[in-house]
Structure formats: structure tokens, C-alpha cells
Amino acid sequence: MMNVNRLALAGSKHLRPSQYRLLAQRFNSTDAQKLTVAEAATRPVVKSGLRFRTKAFITLTLIGAGVAGVVKHSFDDEKFRELLEDNIPHYAHSLDKLEQLRDNEDVEKVIAGATLVGGKIVDLSKTGYRTASDLINGTTTPAPEKPAASASSSAAQLVKKVQELEQPKPAVAAARAEFIPSETPAPAFLPGAAPGKNASHVEKPKIVEKVAKKVEEVKEKAAEIKENIQEKIAEKKEEAAAPPKKLIKIAPIESEEPVMSSLNATLAQLVHILNENGIPEQGHEVFEKANEELKHLNERVEALKVEGEAQAATVMAELTEKYKRIVDEKEEHHEGHVSQLKRELANAFEQEKKDAIERELKIQQEILREEQKQELIKYAMDMQRRWVREVKVRVENERGGRLARLDQINLRLKTLERQGVDNADFLDQSSRTHQLWCGVKALEKTYEAGERRPFDRELARLKRLAETEKDAEVLKAVLAAVPESVAANGVDSVPELMDRFEYVADKVRQASLVPENGGVLAHGMSVVLSKLMFKKHGLVPGNDVEAILARTEHYLVENDLEQAVRELNQLKGWGKRLAKDWIVAARRRVEVGQAIDVINTHANLVSLTLA
Amino acid sequence: MSATNNTKAAAIPSEEILSRKWDECLSNVIVKSGIGLSVGIVASALVFKKRSWPISVSTGLGLGYALSQCERNFNPTLVPVAKYQDKK
């Protein structure tokens, strides 16, 4: 069926002649020669595919490449190397040896030599290719690069370059202008470049001769110009060695002013400098003039100084007289003032003394009056007390018998009251204890039921009872510690937990062989391989997953939920994640059980204290 | 989006997270390789002149994509092109 379809498709497919022939051979007997049975028998059977030799070769190459790749990668990646070293015997030893080999210097030299040879081979092949392409593309000369010819041409070019650098520009420009038309472009580049363009090779000997000639001409010209320059330099030196000039002389001016002396110093320096360098005659006159003017300036300054001093003296004398007069007047005025003040102060002092004495007298009088009053009050109170005591004594003597009897009756009444109240209290308390007991029992019943049942109503009832009790702090705390959601949903029963545990244990076993950060393959392997592991039962020691699960199961069967939870909590990694919900549910049950225990104890205590 | 994520997380009991992951993985494989297969068939029929390799290539691509999704699902800490280096 398939074959027919293929041939039908062949019409629409583009087939090479060989392909068509093959197809035709297989399906269409009219288009190709069929082999007779005899011929088919005698023909050697050519097995399809490659020969064994080829296959072996390919396999070995691939294996070798694989091993090389593994070795190379293990040098790069530490973790990979450790993995291989752990699992393949003698791998570490081999790698160490290889490292030694790599770090060995002899080997490095060998490798360097090999790379050099390789480079040379590459160069040779390149030139071979170039010449071959020249040949093919029709350039005239086939010769490969000859080192000797290129060396001579490069030497000539170097000489030329040196000449250019030595000479002044115009001479070389002239020489070059003669060069350029006769040369090909190649020698104008750096020496040694583009040897492949060998079309100019025929002209090279001629050019070398020409270059030599030109070099000689240029050398002669250079010599001439050098002489010229030297002559010019000699002339300049003569000019510079002219007769020395007349020196300028100035007289130094002395003065006290610092300004003047600095001016003088500056002028002297200027003259000194100019004398050294030599200046024409005009400067000489100007400087002498400047010196005279400086002298005049100095004299003027002195005169001004003297005038100023004289003026200052007169002004000072006038001012001192004036001030003396003013000071005398002020002194007289001041003395009269002072005596007046003294008299006034004395009067004020006398007055004050008198006032103080009067005040003291008044205060003393008042104190004495107060003391008198206090004494009178005390005496009055004393009198009153004595009166009250007398009255009491008299009344009691009268009362005698009757009043005492009234007291007794009162006492007994009080006792009766108390007893009545106590009784009522007792009854109240016992009824509350009964209610508490009932509530606890109801809660226990819900807790011990064979399935999960909500117990929020019982819990609310207990809370209400706890409100009315005194000394019920513990009870209230415990009742408050049970969360609302747990009460509303109820807790699992032990059979339910056991069922769930079987399921969870199964899942934990499946996930037990997953390595850290494992992907889908690791998880798959874990699922498959965990089915090959043995299951343990009973109290087995050990920290692996199977032991933990076995111990948890054991505790569950013994109804020791707390221990079971503690055991299962020891799981790590995926196991822990999977078992989390079960642990939470079991814990809730344990906590509610503990709360019920506490409430039970409290109820016991209360009933004991009653009796 | 966060609300639906939270309710989704709350609904699964913890012992079934791996089962859920396997379920997602399986559905991914089926869906993606199926899509790859159909795309391959269409492409082979329309563009590639009814040759057989586009089909297998496309199915393989789909399978590979599903595999990488699975891998990320099981190992969310995986970052592409990250190499695990031992702390030295």
C-alpha cells in the first residue's frame, strides 16, 4: 500500500535520475531490466551500507572525540571532574598525569615548534594558491616569491628613504619628480609588501640602475647645499661679534623712604641688563635723564616731610591747653554734688531704723496672743472628754443585763445568715461543676468519634461556663488557644489519620530518592527506583526515609500520635513537603487532645475543692 | 491573579503536589507534542512538499518544549544557562 502511494507521489516530487531508476527497479518491471534467477544467484551479494573497516574507523573516531571532549570538559568544570573521578576507576590518576604533561615545558616547546611549522606551511600554501590563481587567470609570470630579489629592491628603497630624510625638501622633491614616472607603484609602499604582484618583475633591474644614478646625483647636490649653509652660518656669527657699546652710567640715590630705594634698585638693574646686552645711543641719554629726575623727586619728598612736622607741633600745643581748662571746671562741679548725697543718705538710714523696731514689737504681740488661744482650746477639749467618759460609765451601768443579751441574739442571727449564704454558694458551685463535667464529656465524645466532627458548639458552651467561674484563668487561656477554624472544621480521628498516613507514606517513598534541585528526570528515576526498595516495619533505628516511616507507623498503631508526629517531622526535603499537611492535621488533633486533658484536670480540681 | 493562585495552593493537600506536577507534565507533553504534530503535518503538506522530516522535527520541538516546562515545574530554581558551582 505504502509503496504504491510513494510511486504516485513520485510524479509530483522532483527526482534525480538515480532515484527514479531505483524506484522504477522496485515497482515497475517494464522500464528496467529484470535479472533472471540464475544471474541473481551468481551475482555477488553486496551488503547495503558501509564496509566493516569504515564502520570501525568511524566508531573509533567518534569514541576518540568523545573521550577527548570529556577530558577537556573535566579540565574546565570542577564538578564534572569530581563526578567522573568518583565513578571511573583510575580517572583521577590519568588526569593528573595529563596535567603534568600539559604543564611540562618540554611539551610546550614542542607545541610551540609545531605551531611555527604549521604557520610556515600555511604561508607556503597561500603563496602556492596565489601563483596557481595567477596562472589560471592569465598573468604573465609564474615565479613564486624569491627572497634575494626582494631583499635587493628593499635595500635600494631603504637607501632612498635615508636620503630623503637627510636633505632639505626642495632638492628631494626635484629628485622624486624624476623618479615617479619611471617607477611602478609597488616600490613606493613599505619595502617587502605586495610581492605577489609580480607583473613588474621584468622592469626591476632597470629601475635599480636608475635609482643608483639618481642617488649619486642627489648626494652631490646635498654636499653643495651643505657648504652653502655653512657659509651663511659663518656670516651670521661675524655680525653678532660687533664692537661693544658704550655703557650707561647712573648715580645711585640714597633715601630713607623704601619706595625711593626700590625705585633706585629697579633702575640700577635695568641699566645693568641693558649694559650687558648693548643698546644704541638714545637709550643712554634717556636713562641719564631718568636718573636726574629721580634725584629731583627725592629732594622734593624731603622738603615736604620737614614742613609737615612743623605744622603738627603747633596744633598739638593748642589742643593740650584747651583740655586742661575743661578738666579743672569739671572737678569743682563734682565735689559739691558728692557732699549733698552724703547728707541725704544719713537721714534715710535713721528713718529705716525706727520703722524696723515698730514692726518687731507688733509681731511679738501677735505670737503671744496665739499661744494663749491654743492653751484655752486644749483645756476645753480635756473638759469635754472627761464629761463623755462619765456619761458612758453611767449608761453602761444601767444597761447591764438587757443590752448584753441583745448583742448575743444579733450574733447568732449573723451566723445563721452566713451559713445560709454558704449553702447557696455550695449548691451553685456544684451545679456549675456538673455542667463543666458535662461539657467536657461532650467535647471528649466529639473528639473520640470515629470521624471528623466539628466541636464549636461544645467549645462555646465551655467558654460560657468558664466566664462565670472564678479562678478559671487556666481554663480560659486553654479555651482561647483553640482556634476557631479548627473548632469549626473538627479534627481528624485516628483511623482517618492512619488511612491518610498510608497514602502519604507511599508518596514520600516515591519522592525519597530525588536529589537536591532535581528536575523531571530525577523525579522520574526516583519514582521508578523507589519501587525496588524494601519496606521496613516496626521500631527500626536509623535516619533514612524508610526507617522514619516505619517508626511513625509503629507509633500510630500504638496510638501515640505525639511521637508519630515528632518522628515524621524529621523528614527532609521533598518528603517533608509532602508530609506537611498530614503533620499539621495530626498536630491539631494532638493539641485539641491536650486542651481537653487540661480542662479535665481543671474540672477534677474544682470538684475536689468543693468537697 | 494572586487570589486565584492562593486558592489554588490552598485546595491541594500537600501530599499531592508531586502528583499534580506529574499531571501537569503529562498534559503538557500531550498537548504540546500534539500541537507540534499538527503543525508539522500542516507544514509538511503545504510548504515542504510532503516530506516526512518536518513532522518529526515539529513533534520533537513540541516534546522538547514540554520537557523544559516539566523541568521548570519540578525545579523552579532552575535558571537557564546557570552552572552549579560548588562553594569553595
Report on this model:
The complex is a heterodimer of chains A (611) and B (88). Chain A is mostly helical and 611 residues long. Chain A has helices spanning 2-10, 17-27, 37-42, 52-76, 78-87, 91-103, 105-137, 147-166, 169-182, 204-240, 258-277, 281-399, 401-447, 456-468, 473-481, 484-489, 494-510, 520-530, 545-557, 561-568, 574-610. Chain A is built from 21 helices and no strands. In chain A, helix 9 (169-182) runs antiparallel to helix 10 (204-240) and helix 15 packs antiparallel against helix 21 (574-610). Chain B is elongated and about 50 Å long. Chain B: This is MICOS complex subunit MIC10.
Provide a short characterization of the protein structure.
Chain A: It is a single-pass membrane protein. Chain A is an all-alpha fold and 611 residues long.
